[in-house]
Amino acid sequence: MASPTPKIHPTASVSPEAILADDVEIGPRCTILGPVKLGTGVRLIGDVYIQGPTEVGEGTTVYPYTTLGFPGQDWKFKPGDPTPGVKVGKGCILREHVTVHAATKPDRPTTIGDRCMLMVNTHLGHDCRIGNDVVMVNNSGLAGHAEMGDNVTLSGMVAIHQFVRVGRFVFMAAGVGVSMDVPPFCVVVERQRLEGINRVGLRRAGMPREHITAIDEAFRKVFRPGNLGRPEMVEMLSELGRDCPPVMEMADFVRGTKRGIVPGSGRPPRLIAPLMHRMRRGQGYVPAADDGID
Questions:
Q1: Which of 119, 124, 213, 281 shows the smallest number of beta carbons within 10 Å?
Q2: Residues 5-20: pLDDT tens digits?
């Protein structure tokens, strides 16, 4: 019995450098440039552009107008500069208009883990890495060099600053943005502010109840106040995590931060803090000229 051959639409353009598994499907007007490797069962529905070096893992489906492997949006990186490219894991779904840019550093590609879903118009900048089972909802994006752990969910229009790390099982509500690291198991519901732990996600993942309770205690004592220094946070988390590996994971995450940790709800938001400072000094509220107060 003859082996199956890739199904390539006659309007598609495929580089002779490409390596295609036997059952790959490449739809209308797709363009494959350079050394691109497509694994078993990969399906490019149509109008997909991929530039190598790029590897797409088995069972991944790529929807129209997605682009993978093009140069990052970095003035220092010039067309033709060497790059390890992009690596996409197994069983992923990349919906319409997803963009994943090639790495600018030589040591590792921009990386997507297994079973990730990147919805419409999501973006991974150059040198980003995301883990397994990540969901990025429409119009969310990561700037260059950002990292996300496994089982993270970004709701619509979430923005992650460059070099930021997001820990495992983090949930971020729609429209928020962060420019500091988000510790594992936490929830972000407004800009630059931790609100609680991802209790629903942890339960669904089958985490033991005693660990969830310990994570909640660690959040209340260490992260919610929003005014502890990193050494103090690490010390407290290490003590609380002696019998709880997830809490010890939080301690290790904080120990490794370079951008600082997103503050908890115990610290007043930046827009309110100046007013509170004035009130403490006895100056009270001074209305702005255009706020409608006579």
A1: 281
A2: 889 999 999 999 999 9
